[in-house]
What we know:
Elements: H1 3-28, H2 34-56, H3 64-88, H4 94-101, H5 104-116, H6 123-142, H7 152-176, H8 182-203, H9 215-242, H10 245-248, H11 251-266, H12 273-304
Helix pairs in contact: 1-4, 1-9, 1-11, 2-3, 2-8, 2-9, 3-7, 3-8, 4-11, 5-7, 5-12, 6-12
Amino acid sequence: MTTKQKGYSALAVTSIVWGTTWVAVKFGIQNMPALQLAAIRLFFAGLIFVLFYLIFKKFSLPPQKQLWQLFILSIFTFVFANGLSAWSLQYIPSGLGALIGALYPLCVVIIEYFFYKSKSLNMLTVIGIGLGIIGVGLVLYENTINVHEKGFFIGLALSIIATISWSFSTIMIAKQKVKINPYYGLGWQMIFGAILVFILSISTNNFIPFAKIPVFSWLMIAYLIIAGSVITFIAFIYSMKHLNPTIASLYAYMNPIVAIGIGTFLLNEKITIQLIIGAIITLLGVYLVNYSDKANRIKIEDLEH
Length: 305
């Protein structure tokens, strides 16, 4: 198998498995608090990465400056983004959570434009952002039947905050350029994130004794650790390194489709024509923003050369 073929295989794993994790979290938190599940998942996944590089690759501990950078990144990447997205699934369908999560490329462009003044919004970008908002609006309108359910708007708010946080994290990683092996650095971020999410779970009373966590929830946690965190992050970084960025970013469009499909069959989450249309419009908007952003980068690189 060639490097490019391996890259496509890694992309397939990222697209499918990350889509299933939304449903796995939904199953796991049926009998335990979401924040506690997220903390356990992050801690053991991070421990696997860190111990592998410390023991088998003979890496040394990162210097204090790098650890501080990784700690700050962990707040956005794993406390707010990962922890809050898991918490949101206590109140909203997994498909809706995945679709809101898919909006992060739009958020990146908007944040860079308003906060960093490093983006110019052309017509294609504006159309993409508009379509993304309209698409999510249709999906939210379809889900208004759930408004009477306790905490729907809380879950919605948590999901939106998680997506914005992931976007900030993406920008920070690009600008800081922490000089450390990406998998090793990821492990430290997960461990820091796990500690903070664990503290948050206790302080918000989202915690039960470990002995009371049912076997089925432990199985979901194991799946999330091995498949959702370790294998998929390895596949994600590999695909980003060895495929064209436009191709590698396709996972963002596949995740919500997988989550909505599996959630419909396994969780009996309602799927309608309006929801499907809303999802398609949303993903089309995300695609246009991505396409426009990459086209602008190519033009800038050509001018620089």
